[in-house]
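User: I'm designing a mutation panel for Tuberous sclerosis 1b and want to avoid disrupting the core. Could you give me a predicted structure to guide residue selection? Please restate the sequence first so the numbering is unambiguous.

Assistant: Good idea. Sequence first, for numbering, then the predicted structure tokens:
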Amino acid sequence: VVVLITGVLVLITLLPMIPQAGKQHIYDFFDVFGRLASWSNKNPGHVPLVYLVHLHAGVYSLFHRLYGMFPCNFMSYLRLHYSMKENLDTFQEVVKPMLEHVRVHPELVTGTQDYELDPSRWRSFEVHDIMIECSKVSLDPLESSCEEDFYYP
């Protein structure tokens, strides 16, 4: 489990650095999320709770990163993957609570799946810009970047 946690944290860190890789690997990233979400829900290896808590935190961060960067594609994946009966428990226990902690992403209204994967979309963004964009859709006080929360003397 420690290897999984390390791997998901590396992926979360790398995604804003290589957004153009989304075009080739986006469904691999989504599958990683789906498998880890299922695994953290079912705990097939009877892993100690402390490791599961850390894994769940990593899956939660991956959810925020994928939703923040690729909302149209990620919502399409979630809709397709969690409409299957065998994945419904994972949706109810893991994914639905995560969805309750994000705002509606503006790209869901104005963007398209193809535009999200267009390399030209990412040219004007630095790594920190992508991370800020991801945090803007979060309702979690630890993840969000609401400008109202900042204090200026």
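For picking mutation sites, this is relevant: DSSP finds nine helices and no strands in the chain. The chain has a mean pLDDT of 89.
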